[in-house]
From TrEMBL:
Keyword Metal-binding part of the UniProt annotation: no
Predominant location: membrane
One Pfam family here: LRR_1
Signal peptide: 1-21
GO cellular component, one term: membrane
Domain Leucine-rich repeat-containing N-terminal plant-type, first and last residues per copy: 26-66
Protein name: Leucine-rich repeat-containing N-terminal plant-type domain-containing protein
Cited InterPro entries: DNA_repair-toleration, Leu-rich_rpt, LRR_dom_sf, LRR_N_plant-typ
Subcellular location: Membrane
Length: 214
């Protein structure tokens, strides 16, 4: 009797785990489909022909990588595909994402604040697009971020102070915008792991320590 109860309990646990896994990858799929639906031009037909809502696993979609253990989306690399459109806020639901690169496209609108929900993110590449407005304050929530690369978009406003508190940051490129405000005088204390900091062609005041200036 005890063995039966134990076997039943294990079966229920496995079923629950399987159902949770399906629900989780369904969340990832919905986020990617929402991202796709925000694209107005896909000149190489990458998303329109390869990303679909049928039974094909998102892990097999072009530009998408999944983890081996949980089969959740861990990387999204769509750099240089000539995509036009806005970035759907649903991208913030890819909670296992560690790498995001949508650089060298023609995305417009604002950088969605929901990107700040990607708590596992280590590398973020958004540069060479046509984003407008300000860098979201929520970017500073990315406590594991090591690379922040957003050059060459007409962004304005101050660099959020929260960005200068990302302890893990090693590389930051926010060059060629119209950003204003002050560069913190204690930037090396606040970003102790920073190796490369590129902020040229902005309207910032203050100095960058020569050992991290590029």
């Amino acid at each position: 009797m005890e063995n039966f109860i134990l076997s039943f309990a294990v079966s229920v646990l496995l079923l629950h785990s399987f159902a949770f896994s399906l629900n989780s990858i369904s969340t990832d799929k919905h986020a990617l489909i929402s991202f796709k639906n925000s694209i107005t031009s896909d000149p190489y037909a990458i998303l329109s022909t390869n990303w679909s809502q049928n039974n094909t696993s998102v892990c097999n979609w072009i530009g998408v990588s999944c983890g081996l253990k949980h089969r959740r989306v861990t990387a999204l690399n769509l750099s240089g595909y000539g995509l036009v459109g806005t970035v759907a806020p649903h991208l913030g639901n890819l909670t296992f994402l560690r790498y995001l690169d949508i650089s060298f496209n023609s995305f417009t609108g604002k950088i969605p604040s929901e990107i700040g929900s990607l708590s596992r993110l280590k590398e973020l590449y958004l540069g060479l697009n046509d984003f407008r407005g300000m860098i979201p304050e929520e970017i500073g929530n990315l406590s594991q971020l090591e690379v922040l690369s957003i050059p060459d978009s007409p962004l304005t406003g101050n660099i959020p102070s929260s960005v200068f508190n990302i302890f893990s940051l090693k590389f930051m490129d926010l060059s060629n915008h119209s950003l204003s405000g002050n560069i913190p005088s204690d930037i090396c204390d606040r970003l102790p792991n920073i190796e490369v900091l590129t902020l040229w062609t902005n309207q910032l005041s203050g100095e960058i320590p020569p050992n991290i200036w590029k």
